[in-house]
């Protein structure tokens, strides 16, 4: 994908990784629609990068359609879609069924619905690039939060399926799987009044370096330009993933030990 001159949509771009990716895309020459459910945050990012903001629920079919329509009116057909919006959800098993539905909608169905919206046009044109911002939790796990772990696993699985199914038709797919990144999401976990959520945050923060969002964004932009799939801002995740696959029992035992150290 030639980013210079392209049109991009980034969801959850009012802060964190989304804002950094939107800025990096703009710096590379893309016209960017900044999507976020928070109007003030979206407008702030758009002003920073000379983009266009759109207040939208990126988990809904209607919200995605509004983002794409905004892009078409402002810049033209969308070439790059970055499905970045995400939430941590409830700790533990997640007692609230409605909360499970919400995190599945935001962390997974948002990707599925966006792909359904953009792929027909991309297939017809023979080009386009879909970025799924998932998590290392989607390759490994998330201690303390089943809903987050499950939805990030599913997001990785969906991205894999897209890459396999559409890769021969000119469609690029990248899946971003960082560990700790200095974002409002991670800070909210670390500062939560809920002990289980704080443990989940500690698991992320202590597993490796907490990176700046700009670092993740730079690697994501490079993946789009190169047409590569897996983006690992923390390279050690690949070693952990290989250890998991080579000896599942040992990996699970190790994760139990790690959990005990967190309290």
CATH topology call: Rossmann fold
State the fourth-level CATH superfamily: NAD(P)-binding Rossmann-like Domain
User: What is the molecular shape?
Assistant: globular
The total of helices stands at 10
Enumerate the strands of the largest sheet in spatial order, edge to edge or round the barrel. 3-2-1-4-5-6-7
C-alpha termini separation: 46 Å
Give a quick account of the main beta sheet: strands, pairing sense, barrel closure. Answer: 7 strands, parallel
- Helix/strand-derived category reads alpha/beta
Strand content: 5-15%
Low-confidence stretches: none
How many discrete structural domains? 1
Give the number of DSSP strands.
Answer: 7
Mean pLDDT figure: 94
| Rg, Cα atoms, Å | 18 Å
Q: Helix-strand pattern, N to C? A: EHEHEHEHEHEHHHEHH
How helix-rich are the residues, as a percent range?
55-70%
CATH class, named: Alpha Beta
